[in-house]
Write the structure tokens for this entry.
Amino acid sequence: TQPKRLVGKRVLLTAGPTFEAIDPVRGITNSSSGKMGFALARACAEAGAEVTLVAGPTAQATPQGVKRVDVISALQMRDAVFANLAKQDVFIAVAAVADYRPAKSVDHKIKKTNAKLTIELVPNPDILAEVAAKKHAPFCVGFAAESRDLARYAETKRKAKKLPLVVGNLVQDGLGGDDNSVTLFDARGAHPLPPGDKLDVARGIVEHIAGMLKKTKRS
Ligand code: C5P
């Protein structure tokens, strides 16, 4: 059995993709199964934390003991995160948030014609960066899914968003499957975790977070 390293801690996570409606039947999304975020929520709950999971549209089952809040779009995800942020000790942003959403939402299905169609997109808020910038921010963990130059991009992201910890994975390793191999980037350097099942990897991430929380003596 795993040691309960997060007893008395509250952890908020985002997971899955977001879906940005173009019209009632179409939209823009990211490919994300939600598996890694749900595995992390489960690992946090197993470690004794009180866990809230804000989930975009996925087929994943809610892990035992986890409070789940379902959302569709990035704006809904941001609202749900801020509505649940009070008293959280840790925020782990695993969601693959769509970077852009259609500028206008259309009430009726767009009809096909032979003319060119342009859809204007506006940037979505960066939920993780907004949470990390708060005055009494929880311990914030970001994910960096990259197709190359993992260490460089992950470190850049960690510094740009002012995060104590970024979990980096090469997308060809992890996306959609049951296994993952990740490297953790913090102020002390790069820490590769043994590759494995997403739940085992999640437990390794939780161990690392628990160790960092102990050192920083927050709350
Ligand atoms: O900058 P990039 O999107 O690659 O950063 C990824 C990290 O930021 C992930 O932890 C992701 O959940 C989070 N993120 C977010 N809101 C966004 C975009 C990314 O919380 N709009």
User: Anything to note?
Assistant: The first helix runs from residue 35 to 46. The radius of gyration is 18 Å. The chain has a mean pLDDT of 94.
